[in-house]
Structures are given as structure tokens and as C-alpha cells.
## 1
Amino acid sequence: MKKFIAILSILLVFASCDQSKIAYVNVDEILKEYEGSKKAEAEMKAQSDRMRAELDQLYGQFQQKVQAFQQNTSLSATAKKEKEQELMMEQQQLQQRQQMAQQQMQTEGQQKIEKINEDIESFLTEYAENKGFSFILGTSDQTKTVMYSKDGLDITEEIIDALNVNYGGDDTKEKIGDAAVETTEQKTDSVN
């Protein structure tokens, strides 16, 4: 009876040991290759270029006014002071407009980054649940949180492929499982 209890105890210990499935991804690589990141970056660049062009045009018009003022020697001292004040106020307004544009760009850029991070985290959560992972760790060139791993634990390419398959779809949750299975099957086929 004691042997039976000992064997049963050992079996229960082994059965209760949770086999954790762990993998990691290179966050820098995902952000660089994810289509959502590329699109957001292109949108921010286009918006920045538009704002820069608009501000350049306004500064060009301002410079023309300054040159016209400097070339106009017929103004009285009072009129000259008034015009200088007017130009200084216009310059301040242009500087304020530029600062506001920069702040707006930073805010919108931060919002896009947060949205991308949320999308990736949500995708990774769903992916981990579908694939049975207990942990998916994130590493980057700066943090180097994963110093060593066995071959096959880096699922960065698999995640990038699955993310890009799912990018822009309405049925993201449904597609996540399909893409994860599809991508894994493709990798398994190529390994065999």
C-alpha cells in the first residue's frame, strides 16, 4: 500500500508539472517589418511633408514682406516702427504655428505607436493562446533580454508573416488562428 501511495504521489507530481511552452520575438524586427508600422510611418511622413510645405510657403511669404519692408525707404519713422511691430507679431505667430504643428505631429505619432503596440500585443495574446504558449518574450537590440535560446524558439518571422496576413482585415480574431496555423504549417512543411 505504501508503494502504491508513493507511486501515486510521484505520478501526481509529474502530472501537475506544467510544461511551459516559451518563445520569443525581436520587437525591433516586428516593428520594422509589420505592414501596419510601415503604413503609419508613411502616413506620418506624408503629413510631416505637407505641414513643412505649408510652413515653408508661409515663411516664404513672410520673407517677401520683410524684404519689401527693408527696401521701402519712403516710410516715416512712425510707420516704420508700426510695420516692424506688425512683422514681429507675424513672425511670432508663424513660430507658434510651427510649434503647434510639431506638437500635433508628436501627439498623432504617439497615438499611432500606441495603436500599433496594442494591435501587436493583442495579436500576440491571441496567437499565444491558439498555439499553447505560456510565454512569448520580447527582445530587441537595445534590451537584449534574450541572450541565448535553442533553435526554433525565435518566432519573429512567423509572427511578422501572420501579422501581415491579418493586417487590415475585419475578422482579425478569426484570421489570427488561421494565419498562425497556416504559417506554422508552412514552416513545418519547409523543415520536413
## 2
Amino acid sequence: MQRTLLICRHAETYEPYPLQPDFERELTPHGLHQANQTGKWLRENFVKIDSLLSSPATRASATARSLASRLYFDTERIAYLPELYNAREAELLHVLGHLPDEAKQVLLVGHNPGITKLARDLTGQQIGYMEPGNVLAITLTLETWEGIHVQTGVLLRHNMEHVR
């Protein structure tokens, strides 16, 4: 069965001020614009998603809400998973491996370096470092999401040249 994993890096954030927890960094006005443009690109290229997983960090959750609104995805259905905050690729794979089988098209909003490493591992390609607001789509032939641990997908498309 064909499944699509959309991997998105959160949009641009403010630099942290002294003693500000990294978790609380907010999107800049340009970051809000990036998230809006990324959502528009997703809607034009993928129409809908079945599941949206996001880090609960302020910058990732704001990006996820913006993307959800552009995809007409109910923001109440966004899964904010603490284990996605600055997660390494192994943790990302673990989370994805527990998705319900009925989810065919999934959007993951997270942080570098984990999401870039995940994209490289899943495609076997030397994908450039994902910049804020970048998203890429990987198609995977999987009966269940549990098989993602040993599956190599195909890079379908990305917006890396569209979001600045």
C-alpha cells in the first residue's frame, strides 16, 4: 500500500533571549508567512492529510496549526507528542511506527537535525539540511506503519526552493 510521509521543519523563529527556554521560542512575522506559504503548497500538492503529528514546542505547534488551517484539518486533531521535541531519527521512526493503519497521508512537524536525518535515511539520498518552513514528501510502500523501520521510500517532491 502506498503511504505518503510529509516531513516539515517548523517555520522561522526569533533568536532566544537570555534565559529563555528553547521550547518557548515563537515564530517571527516572516515565520508566520513561511508557515502560511508552506500550507498553501501542501494544499496545492496533496489536498488532504489523515494525521498531523507535531512537537509541542511553541514554534512547531504554531507551524502545525497554520498548516492545518490551510489543509482544512481540524486543529483539535493535531497530535502534540512530547517525544517529538528535538527528537532524533530513531525516536521519530518509533512514533511513526505506531500510526494507525488507516492513516495514508501523514504530516510530521518537527526539528532539525532529526527530521533531516530521517528524510535522508528514508530516501537513501543526500538531502540538503531542511531550512525553516521546508517540507518534503516521501512515498513508502508499507502494509502497516510498523514496517517504516526497514523501509526505504522515494522522494516525491519538496518545497525547498519555494519557501524563503
## 3
Amino acid sequence: MVVSSHALKQRAYHEMKEFLVIALYLWVVFALLAVHKTVILGEHHIDFAAHGFALINALALGKVVLVGRKLHLADDLLPNAPLIYPAMLKSAVFTVLLAGFKILEDAGLGLYHGQSFSQSIADIGGGTWKGILSISAIMFVVLIPFFAFTELQKIVGEGKLERMFFYTRQPLNLPGRLTETLSPPFQRQSASKEAAA
């Protein structure tokens, strides 16, 4: 199968854009967690300023999410379910994926530097299972809006949801049932009254 250079450029552009959106989302989350940690530790007069790691982690974990999405992890497991279920399922699956990757990454770096496993993962929730589970729970909740957005985008159509959120509002050419769902209640009531008359 021969792929044109134009098609390859389009695909590379699309995947780079998707990666940057994922990395930006994760960076905002990690930066806010770093700021929160700085404030908490500052109350106890402990200096902490590792904000640069938020960007590095966002880039690394963003690539993991992108690869997971390209492998279609947890896709089509709940095809006819309300959108909240596939969003929560994907959030759970990707939380496990990200936590596992982060633990393996830190353990590998620690092993390279001659540290034990427990010393290597000390930065992840204090290195305890309770801390790791609490960070994972936060990550699960944070990923729900991200995957809800992507699941809704599948239904509405590629690029239409982005236009709804980030550009001037204009009427969209949506499927009939979805248009009824998204239209304001007063428009639905007036349309049903007109149909009854």
C-alpha cells in the first residue's frame, strides 16, 4: 500500500495536534497539583519548586495516552451505553495505564541510579500504596472530562465539538435526534406545540 507524502503530512499534523492537546491537558493538571503541593509544603516551611517536572511528565504521559488511543484501548466496549459509561471506563483503563507506566519509568530510572524500588517510586504519592492509589483516584477523576469530550466528539463529528467550544456559535448540521437533544428546551416545546396544531 503506497501512501502519498501529502497524506503522511496530514496524518503527522493530526497526530501532533492530538498529542499537544493531550499534553496540554495533562500539563495543566500536573502544574495545578505541583502548585497545591508547594502551598501545602510551604505552610510547613518546606521549600518545593519542581514545577518543571509537570511539563516533562505531561509530555511523557501524553505520548502514552496517544499510543493507547491509537491502539484503541477500551474502544467500543460499551457501544450503545450512555456516554458517561465509556468515558468512565476509558478513564479507569487509562489511569491504570498511566500509573503503571509512571511506576515502571521511575523504577527503571531508580534502578539505573542504583536505588531500590521503594526509593525509586518515593515521588509518586510518597511511595506508599495508599499515596499511589490516591494519586490514581485523582487522575481517574481528572480524565473523565477529557474522555467525555472525546466520546461526545465521536457522536457529533470530527471538529464540530471543537467549533462549538472554541469558535463563534453557528448552527451545526447535526443528526436529527442529536439536534433535538442539544436544542434549548423552549425550542423543543415550541416545535412540539407547532406539530400538535
## 4
Amino acid sequence: MSPALILGISTSVIIFGVLFEMMRRHQLREKYAVLWFLVALGALIVSVVPGLLSGAADIVGVEVPANLLFFLASMLLLALSLQHSFELGRLEERTRTLAEEVALLRLRVDQGSDGAADHPADHPTDHPTDRPADRLAGSSAARDRDRGADQGVVADPAERRAVDDELGENETR
């Protein structure tokens, strides 16, 4: 056995082991585990059948097979980075929405209003992404959001200041 074959197989086995352990401890979600499983499987195949990479390089027109491997690895990392950026943006918006909802609920509790009918959870949702803060601010905020306007959900300036103070944000958007 060549040292390159031993290195490739051992690296693939280590990746499989780490993936299994992370899945067992619930530290890695399934959708990411599938991707890393495919990466480990590809590394195993390339290390066991090195002529496969050379053949692929010839088909694509790359002179050095390692350059093709580096290019594919770069594209994989770029795709992962874009996907994580998308999810990060989505989660940031969700966190902001939840923080606004909590701030409005705290404001309502601090003001002493006990109107159970005005509780955001008591109003039916017309839009699947409708926010409780939109319902509190009125329908104009929901219309603005649907038109792609600013994501600030509190239309009343006094209420906006109260929410910003609760969130620790002094400047308006």
C-alpha cells in the first residue's frame, strides 16, 4: 500500500467517525452531515482510485489533477459559505422579530393593560409570516412589509421609541 492510499483512507475513516460522533451527540444537523458524508466518500473514492481524478482532469482540460481537486474544494467551501450566510440572515431577522415581540409584550405589561383580547396570540394570522408587532402597529406595517419596504414593524413613533429603548437601540432606522 502506498502512503497516499493509507493517508486518504485513514482521513476518510476519521471524517466518518467524527461525523458519526457529532450526529450521536446532536452537534451536527442531518442536512450538514449528508454533505460531509459525501465529501468523505469522495475523498475515499479518490484515494482508492487515483486514476479517477486524473481522468476527470483530462475530461475537463486541467493539466494537473490536484488543481481540479483544489478548484472543487474551493467551490464546495464557497457554496457552504453562501448557504450559511443565507441562514444567518434568516435567523437574525427571526431574532429581531422575537425581540420586538418581547419588547412590545413587556411594554404592555409595564403599562398595566390587561386586555386579554389585545394579546397578539389571540389574533388570527392572515399571512404565514405575519408578525405580532405588525398586528399591534396596524395593517400599514404589514402592507409595507409585503411591498418590500423597511423591515421595521412598529409604525407609531412613540411605540418605536419604546421598543428601541427596550432593545437598547437609540437610533431609528
